[in-house]
Amino acid sequence: MTSPDEFRLLGSIADIAPQDWDALLPPAPTPCLHHAYLHALEASGCVGEASGWTPRHATLWTDGRLAAAMPLYLKTHSWGEYVFDWAWAEAYQRHGLDYYPKWLCAIPFTPVPGPRVLGQDPRARERLMAGVSRLAESSALSSLHVLFPGERELASLQQNGLSLREGVQFRWSNTGTDGSPYADFDAFLGSLNHDKRKKIRQERRRASAHGLSLSWLNGHTATHEDWHFLYRCYANTYALHRSTPYLNLDFFLRLARARPEQVVLLVAARAGVPVACAFFLRDEETLYGRYWGAVEPLPFLHFELCYYQAIEHCIAHGLQRFEGGAQGEHKVARGLLPVKTHSAHWIADPRFRTAVDDFLGRERQHMSFYLDELNERAPYRSSTD
Length: 385
Description:
The chain is an alpha+beta fold. The chain has 2 domains: 6-170 and 339-376, 3-Layer(aba) Sandwich (Aminopeptidase), CATH 3.40.630.30; 175-319, Gcn5-related N-acetyltransferase (GNAT) (Aminopeptidase), CATH 3.40.630.30. The protein is built from 11 helices and 14 strands. The protein has helices spanning 18-22, 35-43, 86-94, 122-138, 154-159, 185-190, 194-208, 224-240, 249-258, 301-317, 350-376; strands at residues 6-10, 53-55, 57-62, 65-70, 72-75, 102-105, 143-147, 163-173, 213-218, 263-270, 273-282, 286-294, 321-326, 337-347. Strands 2-5-6-7-14-8-13-12-11-10-9 form an 11-stranded mixed β-sheet. A 3-stranded antiparallel β-sheet has the order 1-3-4, with helices on one face. The protein is globular. The model has no long low-confidence stretch (mean pLDDT 96). InterPro entries: Acyl_CoA_acyltransferase, FemAB-like.
């Protein structure tokens, strides 16, 4: 006779054995789904009660075995999510209600789409999602949010009462006009229309004129000084935008030790002295653009390090795609095309739930028009070009 399921909330990812968590992941998972990534966030203090991200990871246990799990947090703000609900929080506040804390299922500070309810057995995933929905309803908190879920989860989220929201990110695919991967960067350029080819070549010449040497590194080859320099660049980018970085140096060091093949640095140096750096994650199929920074202003270097070198890297290493991350319409002119992303939301108060559902319906219509507009500006050659 099978033992009943046990639903548990855990206050730390360290309460789960790494091999048990990772056994729930799909084939070729994104790096940020691994136990090591979430543990590095918590162990470094980037995630925790002091940061406003209090772990309450939802787990389902069957016969004493971990059958399904969800990265779940109590959030006391909306920073670091890349899906914006500030207006909803303000509406709650205007009516004298508390929007925070809220339930949030997400990978902290990481807008990389992928599964959020983890497990090999679809029935276990369904039971866990139902358990989280019951938790949200009984907790007296304002809401439950699931950010950047995978496509396979959308129907389940809706069945559990969550409303879908749409967003957009930008992605480059390693697929030439004949359906095969590009042979080299010139082959990629050849797929673009004349104006975009010309613009990219001009930008690369301007970046090359800085006379910098470029080095690709990973967790095995990057030195402690390289990681210090990355953090300096990363923090400087936030400072230029009058903001505070979410991550600290300890996080990067921990992640590099734990997943050395999945962290990638591109360092630009002048006469051996580093002046700029870009940080990526990678898995078996995809390179993910994450952070970049420089210690001096160098025109067009951002495009070179964050887009053109990334595309060359994907071609050279047989990766299928490059994900450029959230926001940035300028990415379209560099060969990245818009792709739809999703989030899911449940609002406890029926009055606000109705208002949010109405807003989301209008927003989806606007997003459809926006995606059509972006696709019309696609840089790739037409049959007549």
